[in-house]
Structures are given as C-alpha cells and as structure tokens.
TrEMBL record:
Phylogenetic lineage: Eukaryota, Fungi, Fungi incertae sedis, Mucoromycota, Glomeromycotina
Taxonomic superkingdom: Eukaryota
Residue stretches making up the W2 domain: 220-394
Keywords (A to Z) from UniProt: GTP-binding, Initiation factor, Nucleotide-binding, Protein biosynthesis
Entry-linked CDD domains: W2_eIF5
Single GO cellular component term: cytosol
Residues annotated as transmembrane: none
PANTHER family assigned: EUKARYOTIC TRANSLATION INITIATION FACTOR, EUKARYOTIC TRANSLATION INITIATION FACTOR 5
Organism: Funneliformis geosporum
Designated name of the protein: 11336_t:CDS:1
Keyword set includes Zinc-finger: no
Any GO MF annotation of the entry: translation initiation factor activity
Length: 394
C-alpha cells in the first residue's frame, strides 16, 4: 500500500511518521451515489484517532451525510468525491489533530500541544463521542490494553506513552536523559504554545464550550449526522423565497434531488407559491398562469393531476378564507386554462372515489388526500358549478 508523510511533508523522504494513501470507491448512481473509503481504519490507526472522526470531518466540510459502520468496517460519505479531494481534507484535519479527551492538538514529531478551534462542528461531535479503548484486528482489546487496564495504567494511546515503545536507540537515550531533567518551576513563564490555565482563560473556554453544545443540540441531530432532510430544506427555502423565479425554484428542486417525489413537491409548491396571492381573491388565473411552466415539469399524467388537486385541498383546508365556491372555481379554471388539469380528471375528483369510472385512478392516488374527508367533500361540492360550466360550454 502506498504511504505518505503525515501532514503533507513530502520534502523529507526519511520522515518517521507516515500514513496510507487514501483510497476512495464510488458506489451507486443517481440520488443514491456514495463514496466509500476502504482503508479508513488503517488511516485512522496511523493518526491514533477513531475512524469516525475523519469521516465525520469529511461530512462537515463537504455538506454531506456520512455513515460509519464500525462492525462492517465501512465508512461512507454521500455523493461522489475524488480521492484527491478527500486527501486534501485529511491534511486539514491532521493540522487540527484534535485530541478527543482534552480538546487539544498534539504533534507527535515536536510535542507541541495547542487548543483546537472550538467552533468547528467536529469538536462538538468529538465531545459527544469520546474514543473507546483501541481494539486489535479481531475486534477484541489488545493484550497490552488489557494488561494496562488491569494494572490501572494509562492506555498506550495516552500522550505519556512508554519511552521504550518501538523507538530507536537514539530516541530511547534522549527520552531517558529528558526524564532526569529537573521539573520546571511552577512560577516560570509558560512557553508560547502552552495552554493558558489562568481562571479567566478557563472560564472563557468553558463559556465557549457551553455555547457550542447548546448550538449543537439545536442544529446537530446525531441520528441524521447533523444534516436536514431534503424536503424540510425545500420547505424552508420556499418559505423564505416564495417570490423566486420559476427557474430558480426548479434548480433548487434538482439540487436537493427530490424531483421524482412528485406528490410532495407539488404540495410544497401549492402551499408556498399561491396562498398570499390567492387571499387577495383577484387575478387567481393570472397567478396560476405565471407558475404554469414550473408546474408542468411535474404534472405529466392523470396521477400527477390528481396529486395537484390533492395539494389544493390541503391549501383550502389551511386557508379558510378561500373556502368559497367562487374562489374554488377560479382556482380550477386557472388549472384548466393553463393545461395543468384535464376535464375528466376534474370530474373524477369532484365525483370522488365512489365513481366506478375513475375508481382505479383514485386507488392509485390514495396518498394524495391531505384533509378530512368531510372537508374534501365540501370543497368538491363548491367546485360543482365549475364542472357544470365546462359541460355546458362543450
């Protein structure tokens, strides 16, 4: 397996600290495409960190959901990502190098220990998921870890490791000589990289930590790895951008990957794009015609037409001011004139699922009913004048 110098120090070919080169494997297609890192465990072992930390960092930086299955040794980042891009992000996390228990970063080459950026979402994740005792390849605790735990000693991953652990002779001699040096005076001035332990600095760090934890409890859900559902994101975006152009709305739908969820997309579009204009009860047909091109992207067959009418039932149910026969007929006329709904589908909707002629159509679209049946029947009764007017015209 190819190896790299940890931290991107490629100028020193004899650098002691190395790691495996990151490998990425893209699986799936369409909305289900994902990137698997097969050697994440080996990479994390060389960094002395749990493999979930770098994986979570990838998700935070790329704005993607991640899935960590430690039992199956599978670490996944949603979306298609090249190995070179993930390697760049890995170099960033090596720079941060967060020690999970003390929230510091420590360099194994020079021993420098400094605080990490407490504002990053990865720090919140680390505080909630402290590392477990390192395990061997067979999934059991290493024999050395068991012995240390039994004797009450520190884990081999502790910063105060045994100086005799896999060091060369020169390093052993340096460590032995360092152990004989006198302990520094407590009143001596700290080095530039030392942690400030004054009461003011400690109080400030605690305050910052509490703020980050409160923020994470609001916006970071562990079950969803801190990511919001696409439909919820679209609903919030429409609420803030109900005057957006048709092209911008359609681009947002494609960006979130929900274009195939016709029923839900139509519901969001109807509930957010029409209420304010419909409440004015003027130029309803004009407002529908303005959005007709956008709706035609999703209304492609009778099933979709019935879904549009189901979303309209939800709109009328939430805005009682629209529950007038005249307004209901205006909305249907707008759909009809914009070629969004055909006559026979409107007839099927008004007659309801009891109509033997359209019973099959309703059976396929049972999920598009959003309001109480009694309310739906009231809406359909108010729509009958429109149905009669179409029949009379023909």
């Amino acid at each position: 397996m190819d190896t790299l110098n940890i931290g991107g120090n490629e100028g020193d070919r004899f650098y002691r600290y190395k790691m495996p080169k990151l490998i990425s494997k893209i699986e799936g297609k369409g909305n289900g495409i994902k990137t698997v890192v097969p050697n994440m465990t080996d990479i994390a072992r060389s960094l002395s960190r749990p493999p979930t930390y770098p994986t979570k960092f990838f998700g935070c930086e790329l704005g993607a959901q991640v899935n960590c299955d430690e039992k199956k040794d599978r670490y996944i980042v949603n979306g298609a990502h090249e190995a070179a891009r993930l390697q760049e992000l890995l170099d960033i996390i090596i720079g941060k190098n967060a020690n999970t228990q003390k929230v510091i970063r420590d360099c194994k080459a020079c021993g420098r220990r400094t605080e990490v950026d407490m504002r990053h979402k990865l720090v919140t994740y680390i505080l909630k998921h402290p590392p477990s005792t390192p395990k061997g390849k067979d999934g059991k605790k290493d024999r050395k870890n068991k012995k240390n735990e039994k004797n009450g000693n520190e884990s081999p991953t502790s910063p105060t490791r045994d100086s005799a652990e896999s060091d060369d002779e020169i390093t052993k001699r340096i460590v032995a000589e360092a152990a004989e040096l006198p302990i520094a005076d407590k009143n001596a001035k700290d080095d530039d990289w030392a942690v400030d332990t004054s009461p003011e600095a400690v109080a400030k760090r605690i305050k910052d930590l509490e703020r980050d934890v409160r923020t994470s409890l609001i916006v970071d859900d562990d079950d969803s790895e801190g990511e919001q559902e696409p439909h919820e994101s679209f609903d919030e975006w429409l609420e803030d951008n109900n005057d957006a152009r048709n092209n911008d709305v359609y681009k947002k739908i494609k960006e979130l990957g929900i274009s195939k969820d016709t029923d839900i997309v139509l519901k969001h579009l109807v509930l957010h794009l029409f209420p304010e204009n419909f409440q004015k009860n003027d130029n309803i047909e004009k407002q529908i015609q303005k959005r007709a091109k956008l709706f035609k992207k999703f209304v492609l067959n009778p099933d979709d037409q019935l879904a549009l009418l189901g979303a309209t039932e939800k709109l009328l149910n939430e805005h009682k001011g629209l529950m007038e026969s005249k307004t209901v007929c205006k909305i249907l006329m707008g759909y009809y004139q914009s070629d969004l709904v055909e006559e026979e589908v409107i007839q099927a909707w008004i007659e309801g699922s009891n109509s033997s002629k359209y019973k099959r159509l309703f059976k396929r679209n049972a999920s598009v009913t959003y309001a109480d049946e009694a309310i739906n029947q009231d809406i359909r009764n108010k729509a009958k004048p429109f149905s009669n007017s179409i029949v009379s015209i023909e």
